[in-house]
Design goal:
Elements: H1 4-21, H2 25-28, H3 32-47, H4 59-80, H5 85-95, E1 101-104, E2 107-110, H6 116-128, H7 134-143, H8 148-167, E3 178-179, E4 182-183, H9 184-194, H10 202-217
Helix pairs in contact: 1-4, 1-5, 1-8, 3-4, 3-6, 4-5, 4-8, 6-7, 8-9, 8-10, 9-10
């Protein structure tokens, strides 16, 4: 179950990230759920779906896509409340994650009877319709060997990477996403495995680790 303290921290960090991208992000009203659609499709790619060729599930990158989906889900909820973090937290916690089924497109879907690909497809469909469902998202976390605590830790990591990207020219188009033949998301996974997420200086250590890897690889 998502803890109130975790929800509050992540909403606060998401607001700071959105402000980093555009101080007028609330006024801009970006279509955050459109990004969920794209990230959901990328998650399907990392899972593997092509029946005509052999594919291996890249679990670590699949987990990262769920973290990305969560970033944009938080942004969507915040935007619905015009950036009000307290109101957003109440909405988030009120959603809960105990639903066993959901209605979409005049059909009823039993969440625990869906496989991972079907759950990702349903997440995309809901996003296209302007909806999110925490029970469905939690089921995806479980599919990817994660719980809310794991999501919280990885969210912090990806948030640091997003700040790093913005500081190094992401919006201007000068940022290089590939370092030494690997995407920055992959370097983030390595950096996270080398650090203690409970350390008081974790965010700074992670940022510096990414900076060192970026300078060596570009």
């Amino acid at each position: 179950m998502l803890k109130e303290a975790q929800a509050r921290t992540m909403l606060e960090m998401q607001v700071k990230m959105n402000e980093k991208v555009n101080p007028e992000w609330v006024k801009a009203a970006y279509p955050y759920l459109r990004a969920v659609v794209v990230e959901g499709a990328e998650a399907i790619e990392h899972h593997g779906w092509k029946w005509w060729k052999k594919q291996e599930c890249d679990l670590e990158q699949l987990q990262m896509e769920l973290v990305d989906i969560w970033h944009f889900t938080l942004s969507h909820i915040l935007l619905e409340h015009k950036g009000d973090q307290d109101a957003s937290m109440k909405t988030l916690l009120a959603m809960g994650s105990t639903d066993t089924s959901l209605e979409f497109d005049q059909k009823s879907f039993v969440i625990n009877k869906l496989d991972t690909l079907k759950r990702l497809e349903l997440t995309i469909g809901l996003a296209c319709a302007g909806r999110v469902n925490l029970s469905l998202f939690e089921a995806l976390l479980n599919d990817c060997q994660m719980n809310w605590n794991d999501l919280y830790s990885q969210y912090i990591g990806k948030n640091v990477l997003n700040f790093f990207r913005q500081d190094h020219g992401y919006k201007e188009g000068t940022y290089q996403k590939i370092w030494e033949g690997r995407e920055d998301n992959e370097h983030l996974v390595d950096a996270l495995s080398d650090l203690n997420a409970d350390h008081a200086d974790f965010r700074h250590q992670l940022y510096e680790s990414l900076k060192d890897r970026y300078q060596k690889g570009t």
